[in-house]
Specification:
Number of domains: 1
Helix content: 40-55%
Shape: elongated
Distance between the termini: 82 Å
Strand content: under 5%
Structural class: mainly alpha
Largest sheet: none
Order of helices and strands: H
Number of strands: 0
Keywords: Membrane, Transmembrane, Transmembrane helix
Number of helices: 1
């Protein structure tokens, strides 16, 4: 029995690809169901914040000349 993937035959490669495909579909299905199944009023909304006047914060008492 050889445990190398390089010397495996065609059916072994096919089994590995099939298992990986099934696992990928399972993970994607779980992610989709977890995302759409949580509709209990926890929706997110975007808030728009308008910019006000510019503010300068400094720790010195020197005046700024423009």
């Amino acid at each position: 029995m050889n445990h190398s993937i390089y010397s495996a035959d065609r059916s072994t490669h096919l089994k590995i690809v099939a298992v990986a495909l099934v696992a990928g579909i399972a993970v994607a299905g779980f992610g989709i169901s977890a995302r759409t199944g949580s509709d209990d009023g926890l929706t997110q909304t975007a808030r728009v914040i308008k910019a006000g006047k510019p503010v300068v914060i400094t720790s010195s008492n020197a005046s700024l000349v423009r």
